[in-house]
Amino acid sequence: MPETALPKTVPVCPVRGSVIYPTMVQHIDASRAISIGAIEAAMAGDKVILIVSQRDKDVDDPKGADLYDVGTACNVLRVRKNPDGTVQMLVSAAARVRASNYQLGDHLQADIEPLSGGLSGGVELRALTRELREKFDTVVSGGKLSAESVQTINSKEDVGEMADHIAFNLDFKLEDKQALLEIANVEERIRRLLTLLDTEQEVQAVQAKIRAQVKEEIDKNQREYYLREQMKVIQKELHGGDEEEGDEAEQFRAKIEALGLTPDVKKEIDREVNRLARMHPDAAEASVIRTYLTWVTELPWHERSEDRLNVEEAAQVLDEDHYGLEKVKDRVLEFLAVRRLRKERAERGEISAEEVNKGPILVFTGPPGVGKTSIAQSIAKSLGRKYVRIALGGARDESDIRGHRRTYIGAMPGRIIQGIRTAGTKNPVILLDEVDKLGSSYQGDPSAALLEVLDPAQNQHFTDHYMGVAFDLSEVMFIATANYPEQIPAALMDRMEVIEFNSYIEQEKLEIAKRYLQPRQLIQNGLKPNQITFTDAALERLISHYTREAGVRNLEREIGTVARKVARRIATGEVKRVKVTDKELERYLGQPRHTPETEGKEDMVGVSTGMFYTPVGGDILFVETSIMPGKGGLVLTGQLGDVMKESARAALTYAKSNAERFHLDRDKLDNSEIHIHVPAGAIPKEGPSAGGAMATSLISALSGIPARHDVAMTGEMTLTGRYLPIGGLKEKVLGARRAGIKHIILPKQNEPDINDIPLHLRASMRFHPCETVDQVLDVALVGGLAALETPRGETGTEVPVKAPAKRRTTRRGDGARA
Ligand SMILES: Nc1ncnc2c1ncn2[C@@H]1O[C@H](COP(=O)(O)OP(=O)(O)OP(=O)(O)O)[C@@H](O)[C@H]1O
User: Fold this and answer.
1) How many domains, in total, are found in the chain?
2) What residue stretches are annotated with the Lon proteolytic domain (predicted)?
C-alpha cells in the first residue's frame, strides 16, 4: 500500500510494550473491547488500522493522550476470533505515520499522516551500513538472537528495513524502540541505533564478567565440596573405615562457627582447621593443631557474668569474710561505687562502654598472711564474678605471661589465657599474686608483657603467642598483690593504686582467731562447736609463743593442729569434749617456739634500744658501744649493712663535733678504739633509722651517762644533728610495746603515723616526737641533755658495758630494717 493510498482517518489499535515497524508481518492478539472494536471497524472499512504503543502499559482504557503520536499504519491480512472472545489478527505494517485528532466512540480512531524522512544515500550511508552490520554481528555473536533471526536480518537489502528489524528483535527499552520508529530519516535512525548497540555491547561485557565471577564462585564451592568428600573417602580407606577421624575437622569447624568470632580471628583459625583436615590424624603435628583448636573452642569468647554492683551487699560480703581491715574495705567499696556510677552513665549513653572498665589497677601490699588474697576472693564474690589466681612468683620470661609460639615443642598459652580458660568467663577477677616476685631473664621481661595486659588501651587486643589471635581482656578486673611494693617494676607500679595492708596486732589476731579461724578449723577437722573450746588465754599464748608472723596463716595452722589432735582423742572415745587452756597448749603443740623479746632490765652506759621491722612484724634491737684504748678506729659488728655503717660514722662525727658542748674528752675520742655492736648477729640489718640509737649509745659510752632502758627510738640522723623520718612506725611501735617499752622516740615528721596505732595501745605509751638529735638525747639519757651539758669529772671509758638482762631470740631469715 503506497503511502499516498492511506486513508485519512483509521481505527486505532493500542498495543502495550511493543512497537511494529514497516514491512513486518505480525500477529497481534486483542482482548480489550477497545482493540476488538478497532479491528472490527477496520474489517468493515478498507482494512487499514493504526497500531500504536501506549506510553504506560498499565492503563487499561487508553485515550488519545495515553498513546504515542507516531505509530504504524498496517493492512489487516486476516482476523480470527477465538472461542474465549479474544481476537487474533495478522497485519502487514505499511508506513510510519503521525496520528492526530484521536476520537473515542465505540473504538478509538485518529487522523494519520505519513512521516516524511527519506534517504540521502552516498558514502556516508555506505559507511553507516557497514558499521551497522559489523556492530550487529558482534552484538549477536554472544548468541543473543536465534540463528534464524540473524539470518533474516542479514538478508535485508534495504538498510532502513534492516535497522527496523534489529530494533524489533533486540531487547531495547520501549522508549528507545519508539524513538527509532519516530525517526523517518534512515541515516539518522542508523546513528541512533548504533549508540543503542554500543550500550548493548557494554551491557553484554559487564554481564559476561558477572557471569564469570558467579561461575568461579560456584566452581570454587563445588570444587571444595568435592575435594572434601574425596578426602573423607580417602581417609576412610586409609584408616579402616573410621569415619570419626575424618569428621574431626568438621566437628571443629561446627564448634568454631558457633563461637561467633570476628572475621580476622576466624580466618586465622579456619586456616588451622583446614591444615588439620589435610593431615594424617596420627601425624605429630595433627595433635599439636588439635590441642590448639581445643584451646580455641574452650575460651570464653563471649561468655560473661552479670556484675552485681550493689555497694551495701558488697560491704556485707566483705564484713562476713574479714575482720577489721577498715581502710581496705572502704577503698574497695569506693572502687565499686565508682564502677556502678560509670556503668549507669554508660547505660544512659553518656560515656562509652569501654570507659566503665577503666580505672587504676588495685595492688594490695603487705606482709604474708594478712588477707590480701582472701579479700580479693571476697571482691569477686561480692561482684558475682568468677575468681582466678595467677601466681607470678618466679615468672622469669615473657612466655610465662604470653605463651610460647606454637612452633615450640610442648608450647602452651601463657598464664593469662590459662586463667581466662579456668574462669570460663571473659570478665573474671584475676588476682596477679606476687607481682613483686617477677623475675627477668634473657628471654624477655615478663613485666613488659604484663604492662600490655594491664593497659586498657592495649588489652582489648591482647595476643598470646600461642593463640596467635587477639583476645579481649578489657572486661577483666585485675588485682595485684605484693609483699614488697618497692620491688614492683616501676612501669607497672605507675598503673597501680597501692592499698596497704598492715600486720595485725595481737588483739586483732585474737579476734580473727575467735571469729574466723577457729570456726573454720573446727569444720575442717570434723568437730562440732561444743566439742572443743579455746580460752582467750590459750589463743593469746598461741599467738605470742607459737607463732611469729605479721598475718594469721601460721596461727590458723596451729589452731588446726590442736583441733586435729583433739579430734583424735574424741574419735577414740578418750574424751567427749575438750577445753583448751593456755596450760594445755604444750600437750598438743610441744614446747613454745618463740619467747618474745623484752626490754632491758636496767639503765646502762653505752646500751640504747632501737626498733626494726621485718615482713613478720616489728621488734626492738640493742645498740652497744664499747671504748678501749687504741688508735682512734671505729669497729662495727653484728652484720650491719652499708647504710647502717654510715649511720654509725655519722653518729661518731656528730659526737666529735659536739665534744666541747657535751664535755667529751677529746683526747680519748681521738686515741681510743670505738666498737659498736648490734647483737643478734644472725640477722642482717640495714637501713638508716637506727641513727638515733647509734648516737645515743655512742654518746652514752663517751659521756658515761646511762641510757634509759624503757625508751626505744627510731629515726635517721644527719651530721648536723637533724632527726629525719623513717618507715614502718606502726610495726616498730607494736614490736616495742610487746617488749614492754613505754616511751617511744620518733622523728617529729612521723607524728601523724601515731594515728595508725590502735587507741588502747597508744593510751598506755608515751610518744616523744623529736626534730634534733639533742632532743633525742634529752629523752634517752638519764638526766637528759642537762646532765650531758654539765661538766663531769673523769667519766666514760672505764664504765664497763653490761649486757642487757635478756637477749632476743630471733629466727634467721628476712633481713631486718631498722
Ligand atoms: N582480717 C581477716 N579476717 C579473717 N580472716 C583473715 C583476715 N586476714 C587474713 N585472714 C585469713 O588468713 C589466711 C591467709 O590470708 P591470705 O592468704 O589472704 O594472705 P595474703 O596476705 O594473701 O598472703 P601472701 O602475701 O602470702 O599471699 C586466709 O585464710 C584468710 O582468710
Assistant:
1) 5
2) 602-783
In ligand 1, the atom with minimum distance to the C-alpha of 515 is 4
Mean pLDDT of the chain: 85
pLDDT at position 625 is 93
Q: Which of 300, 285, 607 is nearest to 472 (CA)?
A: 300
From the CA of 565, how far away is ligand 1's center (Å)? Answer: 24
Q: At 194, give phi and psi (nearest 5°).
A: -60, -40
- Residue 339 beta carbon below 6 angstroms from any ligand 1 atom: no
Q: Quote the ligand 1 centre to 326 CA distance (angstroms).
A: 15
Is the pLDDT score of 602 beyond 60?
yes
Check whether residue 341 and residue 357 sit in a common domain.
Answer: yes
Looking at 444, 475, 500, the residue that finishes a domain is 500
User: Which of 95, 114, 133 is at the close of a domain?
Assistant: 114
What DSSP string describes 340-375? HHHHHHHHTTSS-HHHHH-SPEEEEESSTTSSHHHH
Evaluate whether residue 160 is within a structural domain.
no
- As to burial, measured by CB atoms within 10 angstroms (0-12 exposed, 13-18 middle, 19+ buried), residue 470 is middle
Q: Report the CATH number that the domain containing residue 567 is assigned in CATH.
A: 1.10.8.60
Cβ neighbors of 486 (< 8 A, separation 6 or more) are none
The reported pLDDT for the residue numbered 599 is: 64
- Stretch among 83-92, 158-167, 672-681 having the lowest mean pLDDT: 672-681
512 CA from centroid of ligand 1 (Å): 10
Same domain, 529 and 617: no
277 and 372 share one domain: no
Ligand 1 centroid – CA 482 distance (Å): 13
Residue 766 has pLDDT above 60, yes or no: yes
Residue 218 lies in a domain: no
**Does 750 have pLDDT greater than 60?**
yes
Query: Above 0.85 for ipTM, yes or no?
Result: yes
Residue 683: pLDDT band by 50, 70, 90 thresholds? low
In order, the DSSP letters of 157-217 are SSHHHHHHHHHHHS---HHHHHHHHH--SHHHHHHHHHHHHHHHHHHHHHHHHHHHHHHHH
525 with 431, same domain: the answer is: no
CATH number at residue 676: 3.30.230.10
Residue with cell 593469662: 416
Query: Is residue 372 annotated as involved in ligand binding?
Result: yes
User: Given this model, what pLDDT does residue 803 score?
Assistant: 41
Q: Are 583 and 635 in the same domain?
A: no
pLDDT value of residue 369 = 86
* 212 assigned to some structural domain: no
529 pLDDT above the threshold of 90: no
Identify whether 171 is part of a domain.
no
Residue 366 annotated as binding?
Answer: yes
Residue 519, marked binder:
no
Same domain? For 432 and 382 the reply is yes
| C-beta of 368 in contact with ligand 1 (< 6 A) | yes
Domain encompassing residue 723: 607-817
Task: Give the CATH number for residue 43.
Answer: 2.30.130.40
Report whether 600 contacts 709 (CB < 8 A). yes
Q: Cell triple for residue 669?
A: 675520742
Q: What is the 511 CA–ligand 1 centroid distance (Å)?
A: 14
Residue 178, pLDDT above cutoff 60: yes
| Minimum-distance ligand 1 atom for the alpha carbon of 482 | 25
pLDDT > 50? residue 505 = yes
For residue 591, the tally of other CB atoms under 10 A from its CB is 7
Give nearest CA residue, ligand 1 atom 25.
Answer: 368
Where residue 73 falls among pLDDT bands split at 50, 70, 90?
very high
> Is ligand 1 within 6 A of the CB of residue 403?
no
732 is catalytic: yes
504 lines ligand 1 (CB under 6 A): no
Q: Which of 626, 672, 689, 703 is catalytic?
A: 689
Confidence check: pLDDT of 203 > 70:
yes
Q: 747 and 613, same structural domain?
A: yes
What residues contact 75, with CB distance under 8 A and at least 6 apart? 1, 47, 48, 91, 92, 94
Over 50: is that where the pLDDT of 716 sits? Answer: yes
